[in-house]
Amino acid sequence: MKKLISVIFSLLISIGFSADAATFNVRKYGAKGNGKRLDTTAIQKAIDACTAAGGGTVIVPAGTYLSATIELKDNVNLHLEKGAVILGTTDYKAYRNLDPFTEGLGIDVGTALMVAVDAKNVSLTGEGVIDGQGSALKERHIKEDTRPEGQRWGMRPFLLRWVRCNDVTVKDVTLKFAGAWTSHYFRCNDVTIDNVTIRSFGVAHNDGINIDGCSRVRISNCDIVSGDDALCFKTTSAQSGCNDIVVTNMRLKSNQAGIKMGTESMAAFENIKISNCHIYDTKNGGIKLFSVDGAKLRNVEISDITMEEVRTPMLFRLGSRLSVFRKHEDERQPIGLFENVVIRNVNAVAADNAQLDPPSGILITGIPGHYITNLTLENIHIRLLGTGTAQDALCKVPEAEDQYPEVKTFGPKIPAYGVWARHVRGLKLKNVTFDLKNPDARPEIICEDGDMEIYR
């Protein structure tokens, strides 16, 4: 028996599973963790040594590690122990951009505090924190950069970026106060995001989780409070769509949308299921699904959703903005599709103070000649303020075919308080009901240029 144990132990050592061989403590590579001097080089040395040895775990023990861009590499698990904080420097010029691109408003972006590019089997785990010091970084930035905010914000770093990576895991960590987007997963495969806490607000564009052209993604048990969209699916490249994605058990609070697909929407959004989410205190929308840059948005199911104090619970849009975000590799796409989407089992309390005055519950619109097709809304109940007048019922809604898709694009008034639909085919409303706090003289449902079936 002793001989057998000795053989097994020797085998484990030979294939790299000994604790010493597989663990790389950043302190041993010179990291001080005092929050005063940059530990970027020391952390990077530990990561480089880990991947060179065939992989393992890079340990970040308790302490505060001031840093600029850190690059994760193959077969590395960066593990933040409880009490460990990786603190982004406020020197925005110290960050690197390993994958530049243009986001939906036309701003060049891509710098990040933590990034992995073309890596495999990479993970970020542990009970520690990554803090980007977004507000302090912005304050320093605007003192040195006098351009308008809409032009300069792209220089501020994302907190976390994964670019063209395979086998990605992010688990248990807390992500705080990014300079721009909090986390961005671009053209990644086999992604697991579980039990992640996000508290990222204070500057504009603080999206929570951005899934951008990824396949085989599983997201669960996350708690997100974000300054911009909480859970957002994008396709900034025509080369890769979002496919085979399952999301469940999420808490989502946002100054913009709770759940969103688009606006960046060049490639498909297909085979996506989202369930059991609580969306609350959102300032722009609960569920917003857009194809405006050529995407085929289809076979999407969202179910078992509660909403509380949400401005404009749902917006669905097929449009023709047709922007290009990676101009060196893509070209303008034809108008896309929006078909076979199911939203079921939603109980929502809409905010009284909304972008639309008076508030409306659900907006659905394609454009002339391009229809949202086979959208099913089932078991939906929304409580609304009411107060609409007969004059409000006569208002005309702009087509805005090539505009940035937003609730306010179609406002400030909508002629129906419950469902307003235009340019639709095969719209099905099954047990969709509305409860009004005050009388509303507008119709409950309007369908223009389309066909619809209503089941009570």
Number of strands: 32
Largest sheet, in brief, is: 30 strands, parallel
Mean pLDDT: 94
> How far is it from the N-terminal to the C-terminal residue, by CA?
72 Å
Low-confidence stretches: 1-21
* Helix coverage percent: 10-25%
- Compute the gyration radius: what is it? 24 Å
* Structural class based on helices, strands and sheet pairing: mainly beta
What is the overall silhouette?
A: elongated
Total helical segments: 6
> Which range does the strand content fall in?
over 45%
Fold blueprint:
Elements: H1 2-14, H2 19-22, E1 23-25, E2 34-38, H3 40-52, E3 56-60, E4 63-67, E5 70-72, E6 76-80, E7 84-88, E8 101-102, E9 108-109, E10 112-117, E11 120-126, E12 129-131, H4 134-144, H5 149-152, E13 158-163, E14 166-171, E15 174-176, E16 183-186, E17 189-194, E18 197-200, E19 209-212, E20 215-226, E21 231-235, E22 242-254, E23 257-265, E24 269-282, E25 285-291, E26 296-310, E27 314-318, E28 337-350, E29 362-365, E30 372-384, H6 407-410, E31 419-436, E32 445-455
Parallel strand pairs: 1-3, 2-4, 3-6, 4-7, 5-10, 6-11, 7-12, 10-13, 11-14, 12-15, 13-16, 14-17, 15-18, 16-19, 17-20, 18-20, 19-21, 20-22, 21-23, 22-24, 23-25, 24-26, 25-27, 26-28, 27-29, 28-30, 29-31, 30-31, 31-32
Antiparallel strand pairs: 8-9
Descriptive overview:
With 456 residues, this protein is mainly beta. 11% of the residues lie in helices and 49% in strands. It has six helices and 32 strands. The protein has helices at residues 2-14, 19-22, 40-52, 134-144, 149-152, 407-410; strands at residues 23-25, 34-38, 56-60, 63-67, 70-72, 76-80, 84-88, 101-102, 108-109, 112-117, 120-126, 129-131, 158-163, 166-171, 174-176, 183-186, 189-194, 197-200, 209-212, 215-226, 231-235, 242-254, 257-265, 269-282, 285-291, 296-310, 314-318, 337-350, 362-365, 372-384, 419-436, 445-455. It has a 30-stranded parallel beta sheet that branches. A two-stranded antiparallel ribbon has the order 8-9. A hairpin with a 5-residue loop joins β8 (101-102) and β9 (108-109). The longest helix has 13 residues, at 2-14. The N and C termini lie far apart (72 Å).
